[in-house]
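Priority: medium. Attachment 1 of 2:
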């Protein structure tokens, strides 16, 4: 048995060396050629395609709806806030979508997820793209949480809120040779302080869709969006607080973002849709975050040290991220929607709960 394990260990190390020393150097120019010359010529025509978007009432989901609408796609918009969805639907029609269906639903509930998919297919007769985008976050140290059981909603929305719609949509996507698009986060690869439960939910989501890609092969394309800080209700400060309640805390948001740039959501979604149409496996934006997974793999201690240095404050003094933000005045570079007490779309849902879902 020991010899058998030794044989496989040696084989794995030899294989890793071949991949690093031979495959990667040879594959890079091939991938660059495909990316620069062939993929742009094979962009998917979205006219008349049916796209279901969860978390479509604001942020990334809302803007992706508009980008799809410009390409002539038919839309099924899903979120808990019906009034906000109807506003997005009206704008999407103005921007070119021939048909828009509004489906108020909480995708963290399996039955409501099933209903959203079934109503979409019943209305349009098919489904070509599923954009799993609903999400929420929290900004606090883990040992400051005062109601840990309330944080199950993080996994319910960020993980199961993607998995449930995917499970119900998959037969229809297979039939249409369609695509799965999931809004994950660069936080799935970076151990950022004060985001422990959010990071964990996004890491689970990322690995699930990477595994699903290996199961589906070419039957259904899978594109994973790993965005950094992008303007949305989350970067406006809306988050699950340490007591489990959802509220807006701009001060906590400022500490978390610090001097890091916050990208415009329109630009992110333009880049994202180009990647989706090309069939890219990953779309990371802003581009400054692209090296993060490599650093996490080769030098994880660097990310851990950086995170600790930025966010862990000494008693009686603000954290380094806050001091850097104040010293540089970098907040003036935040998008206008994040400054001057940003507004959040508020609405009472049918079950009289405050909508906790936002966008990543």
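Attachment 2 of 2:
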């Amino acid at each position: 048995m020991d010899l058998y394990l030794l044989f496989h260990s040696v084989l794995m190390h030899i294989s890793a060396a071949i991949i690093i020393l031979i495959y990667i150097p040879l594959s890079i120019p091939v991938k660059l050629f495909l990316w620069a010359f062939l993929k742009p010529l094979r962009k998917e025509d979205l006219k008349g395609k049916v796209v279901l978007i969860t978390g479509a009432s604001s942020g990334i989901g809302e803007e992706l709806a508009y980008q799809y609408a410009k390409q002539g796609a038919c839309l099924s918009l899903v979120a808990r806030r019906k009034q906000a969805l109807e506003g997005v639907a009206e704008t999407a029609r103005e921007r070119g979508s021939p048909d828009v269906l509004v489906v108020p639903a909480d995708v963290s509930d399996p039955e409501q997820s099933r209903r959203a998919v079934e109503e979409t297919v019943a209305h349009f007769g098919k489904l070509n793209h599923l954009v799993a985008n609903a999400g929420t976050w929290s900004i606090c140290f883990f040992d400051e949480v005062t109601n840990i059981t309330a944080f199950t909603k993080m996994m319910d929305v960020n993980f199961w809120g993607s998995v449930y719609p995917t499970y119900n949509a998959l037969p229809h996507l297979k039939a249409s040779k369609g695509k799965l698009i999931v809004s994950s986060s660069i936080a799935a690869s970076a151990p950022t302080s004060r985001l422990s439960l959010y990071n964990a939910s996004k890491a689970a989501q990322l690995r699930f869709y990477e595994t699903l890609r290996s199961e589906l092969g070419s039957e259904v394309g899978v594109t994973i969006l790993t965005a950094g800080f992008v303007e949305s209700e989350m970067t406006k400060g809306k988050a699950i607080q340490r007591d489990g309640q959802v509220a807006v805390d701009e001060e906590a948001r400022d500490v978390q973002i610090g001097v890091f740039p916050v990208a415009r959501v329109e630009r992110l979604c333009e880049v994202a849709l180009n990647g989706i149409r090309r069939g890219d496996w990953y779309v990371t934006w802003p581009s400054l975050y692209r090296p993060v997974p490599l650093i996490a793999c080769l030098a994880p201690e660097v990310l851990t040290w950086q995170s600790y240095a930025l966010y862990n404050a000494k008693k009686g003094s603000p954290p380094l991220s806050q001091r850097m933000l104040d010293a540089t005045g970098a907040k003036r570079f935040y998008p206008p929607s994040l400054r001057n007490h940003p507004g959040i779309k508020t609405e009472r849902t049918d079950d009289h709960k405050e909508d906790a879902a936002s966008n990543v």
